[in-house]
Amino acid sequence: MFTPTALPVSGSKQDFYASLAQQLSGLLHGEPDAIANAANMSALLYDLMPDLNWAGFYFMRGGELVLGPFQGKVACVRIAVGRGVCGTAVERKASVVVPDVHAFPGHIACDSASRSELVVPLVKDGRVLGVLDLDSPNPARFDEEDREGCERLVRIYLEASDIADGSFGL
Q1: Residue 71 lies in a domain
Q2: What is the pLDDT of residue 15?
Q3: DSSP type of residue 7
Q4: What is the sign of the dihedral through the CA atoms of 90, 76, 135 and 124?
Q5: What pLDDT, in 10s, does the model give residues 2-35?
Q6: The dihedral formed by the CA atoms of 5, 36, 134 and 122, expressed in degrees to the nearest 10
Q7: What average pLDDT is seen over the chain?
Q8: How distant, in Å, are the alpha carbons of 20, 22, 93, 149 from that of 164?
Q9: CA within 20 to 30 Å of 55's CA: 84, 121, 126, 149, which one?
Q10: Is 98 part of any domain?
Q11: CATH of the domain at 138
């Protein structure tokens, strides 16, 4: 059975994300269920990434984002494409790093304690299937190294999971 291990406190962010990627690969190895993998990935990120107050997924359903597995306080259930940070990432088909969510036009405040956000779209075969959403109570918590590291983690998730057709194995 896979057991996550504490990540080194010292070292670079690159080392941190390399270790996290290795752990995520081990955690998802041999399990194709996209929902189970999203649940475990959310728990792993929430547990091992410092300064998060929310980590989870939204999946595209009927032309909008619908809440998936997550760790943290209750969240908004549906988000329109183009609305908030998550909807913007879908619209752009690109990751969005927001140092101050209060300065982001149209930010959706599910948790008023959140101050910064990183959203990485799940893009497979040119289609956005959902997003990974990370929130922090700290302003400017996320930077380009976090974006790159989380994009690598999303690639691992997409490669392991049966999410290609959007049915999520259901």
Answers
A1: yes
A2: 95
A3: P
A4: negative
A5: 455 555 556 899 999 999 999 999 999 999 999 9
A6: 120
A7: 90
A8: 24, 23, 16, 22
A9: 126
A10: yes
A11: 3.30.450.40
